[in-house]
Structures are given as structure tokens and as C-alpha cells.
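Figure 6 in text form: structure in, sequence out.
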């Protein structure tokens, strides 16, 4: 079935298990069928990204497996991609391109589409020089460096397009800020879900809000922000809960930047529920947590307002389940164990939310009541 879509891929990644698993999931989310995985310790060599021996090997593997594309789990330059493409006779896409393709495929709202467009232009900018050179190859680079003019025109076109997209995004952002102002007026604590892609944010969101937003094992199922009012049973306390795009490691800064208006919600949150897939290996949890922590600090989110939600505990054996909160990995945080799928730990989670976000609101209300 795959061949008619031209989606058979040979993947080049680093030799560690985490990288291998993640790029396979990304490839799947991008709609590729992986025929072969090749590993390499360094993927940033000058000519092909991979070493020239590995490039030869790739040529063979592509032919053998009748693949249509090579996916490189790293950011490579256009020149490197073009060189490798020429040698192997198939298209070469890098990690950034793959993530952009997934985002483009999944973008459903105007804002997400504009964000993807902006990211796309940012991806092209540093590659413009190589692209122009590649397309004008054969022409003489003569007096005053022919080709520089074309490069210049291309740069200016990209910059102008970025300006347009940013203006449009600014308008959607103004609408969003209005919403934020309305939210403030309600005086209800604002709680944001955050975390690595596929940690179970939307599953928890659906459980707490009785929504039915799309969930899936694929990476980057959610790209846009949804906000819902939640009334907790018993206490009848209310919070606003938001679900948003997930994080991933080695995400280029401009992609985070392009999604800034979506991720900005996190900065305004009274409380951030940082979801962790606790069913994974300690190594994976560590890598993902570091990546989330870095992204949150880039967004200037105060660590004091983060609750770590250890999700998917239904998949743990009873011993690990009993001990997991004591793992030194989590020592900096307030933690709650839950299973978003089964509903375990919801009462504890609600209590924690009310303690940390609701308490503040009540004291404010109490102060106002005294006036
Ligand atoms: N076993 C188990 N699976 C879970 C649990 N929570 C979520 N999942 C599964 O994990 C996968 C990802 O869940 P999502 O809710 O889509 O994750 P997300 O964090 O919203 O992912 P993105 O939107 O892609 O960033 C789905 O296949 C869920 O069924 C849980 O508590 N236990
Ligand atoms: Mg989601």
C-alpha cells in the first residue's frame, strides 16, 4: 500500500534506544513506513551529514528496500541534503522537516496554520542560500558573484512573507488576549496542562472536562489550545483548564517561537500540570523531563507553580507504583500519581489543584468579601 504514496523510508538516527524509538514514532506520525534503520554516532559531517562511508551504505539500503525517502534524525543543511539525495536518488528530509510536516498535516485552526506557515518560513531562511545555489547550478558564478543577487531577492521575499504572517498572527493573538482578559474577570484559577507529546494531556483533559477531544498514540495529536471551565464535584470549586501542544526534545527554538502565542498560555497560568508518562523507562522519563523543564524555563514559567502528574500508573507493577514518587528524578516537585485512562488518582489531583490554585482564589475572594 505504502509504495503508491512514496512513503517508504530509510531512517538514520543515533545509536541510543531513546533516539531510535522517538524517530520511529515521528516517522509514523509523519505517515512514513520505515523499511530500515541505520545508526550513526555523528550526523553533522560536512558533505552528507553522515560520513561518506555511511552515505554509500545508505545508497545500498535505499535501493535494496526500494525506499522513497531518507529521514535524517538531525538538522542538516540544504547542501548536505542535496548531496545525499544526489548520491542515493531519493528525497532526503531532516528532523525539523519531518516535525514541520507533521505539524502542517495536523494544523486545523487558522492560528495553527499561521504558526506552521511562520515556522516553515523560518526553516527556509537559513537554507535559502544553498537552495538558490542548487537551483542556479551550472550558471557561471562570474563578475561580482552572480547568484548573490538571487539569494538576496529570496531572503527579502522570505522576510516579507514572514512579516505578513506575523501580522496575521498578531491579530489572532489580540483576540486571544481579549479572552485572557475575560478569563481574569471571572476570577477563576487558570490551570494549564503541559508535557511531552503523548504523555496523556488530552486524555486527562477529557476526563476532567467530560470533553471528547482527539487522543491517539501518535505524536503531536494536539496542536491548538482548548480551554474549558471545570466544576469539581463536592467542593463545586471552579477552574479553567487548558490543553495544548506537547513538547519534544531537540525541538528547534524557532518552532517553539512560532507556537509562542499558544504556549504563552502557560505563562499566564496560575498552575501548570506537567504530565509525565510514568510507564516509560527511567532513562526516557529523565530525558523527557529535562526537555520539558527547559521548555518551561524558556517560557519563564515559575517552577513553584508546577505540579508533576505521573500518568499511566495503570501500566506499572504494584511495587514500582508504590515507590515511584520517591524517585530522585521528581524530588524538586509536588507529585500526584494518576491514570488518566482509568481515573485513578483524580481525587488527589483535584485536592492538589485546589490547594495550590484554588486556595489563592479563595483568599482573594475572602479579602474582597471583607471590603
Ligand atoms: N495505559 C494508559 N494509557 C494512557 C493513559 N493516558 C493516556 N494514555 C494513552 O497515551 C496516548 C497519548 O494520549 P494523549 O492524551 O493523546 O496524549 P497527549 O499528551 O495529549 O499527546 P499530544 O497531543 O500528541 O501531545 C494515547 O494512546 C492514550 O490512550 C493512561 O493513564 N494509561
Ligand atoms: Mg493531546
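Output sequence:
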Amino acid at each position: 500500500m505504502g509504495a503508491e504514496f512514496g512513503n517508504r523510508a530509510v531512517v538514520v538516527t543515533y545509536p541510543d534506544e531513546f533516539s531510535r524509538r522517538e524517530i520511529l514514532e515521528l516517522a509514523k506520525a509523519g505517515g512514513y513506513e520505515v523499511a530500515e534503520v541505520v545508526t550513526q554516532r555523528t550526523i553533522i559531517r560536512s558533505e552528507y551529514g553522515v560520513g561518506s562511508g555511511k552515505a554509500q551504505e545508505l545508497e545500498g539500503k535505499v535501493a535494496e528496500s526500494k525506499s522513497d525517502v531518507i529521514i535524517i534524525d538531525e538538522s542538516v543543511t540544504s547542501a548536505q541534503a542535496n548531496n545525499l539525495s544526489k548520491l542515493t536518488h531519493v528525497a532526503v528530509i531532516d528532523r525539523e522537516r519531518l516535525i514541520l510536516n507533521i505539524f502542517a498535516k495536523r494544523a486545523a485552526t487558522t492560528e495553527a496554520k499561521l504558526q506552521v506557515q511562520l515556522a516553515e518560513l523560518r526553516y527556509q531562511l537559513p537554507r535559502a542560500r544553498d537552495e538558490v545555489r542548487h537551483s542556479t547550478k551550472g550558471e557561471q558564478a562570474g563578475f561580482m558573484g552572480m547568484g548573490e543577487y538571487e539569494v538576496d531577492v529570496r531572503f527579502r521575499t522570505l522576510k516579507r512573507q514572514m512579516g505578513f504572517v506575523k501580522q496575521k498572527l498578531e491579530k489572532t493573538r489580540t483576540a486571544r488576549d481579549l479572552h485572557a482578559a475575560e478569563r481574569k474577570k471571572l476570577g477563576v484559577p487558570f490551570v494549564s496542562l503541559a508535557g511531552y507529546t503523548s504523555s496523556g494531556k488530552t486524555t486527562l483533559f477529557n476526563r476532567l472536562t467530560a470533553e471528547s477531544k482527539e487522543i491517539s498514540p501518535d505524536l503531536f495529536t494536539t496542536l491548538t489550545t482548548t480551554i474549558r471551565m471545570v466544576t469539581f464535584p463536592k467542593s463545586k470549586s471552579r477552574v479553567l483548564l487548558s490543553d495544548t501542544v506537547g513538547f519534544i526534545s531537540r525541538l528547534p527554538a524557532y518552532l517553539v517561537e512560532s507556537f509562542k502565542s499558544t504556549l504563552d498560555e502557560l505563562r499566564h497560568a496560575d498552575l501548570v500540570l506537567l504530565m509525565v508518562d510514568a510507564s516509560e523507562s527511567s532513562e526516557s522519563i529523565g530525558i523527557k523531563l529535562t526537555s520539558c523543564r527547559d521548555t518551561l524555563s524558556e517560557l519563564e514559567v515559575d517552577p513553584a507553580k508546577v505540579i508533576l502528574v505521573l500518568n499511566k500508573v495503570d501500566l506499572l507493577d504494584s511495587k514500582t507504583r508504590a515507590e515511584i514518587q520517591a524517585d530522585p528524578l521528581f524530588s524538586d516537585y509536588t507529585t500526584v500519581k494518576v491514570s488518566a485512562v482509568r481515573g485513578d488518582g483524580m481525587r488527589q489531583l483535584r485536592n492538589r489543584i485546589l490547594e495550590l490554585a484554588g486556595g489563592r482564589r479563595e483568599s482573594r475572594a475572602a479579602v474582597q468579601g471583607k471590603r
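Caption detail: DSSP finds 14 helices and ten strands in the chain.
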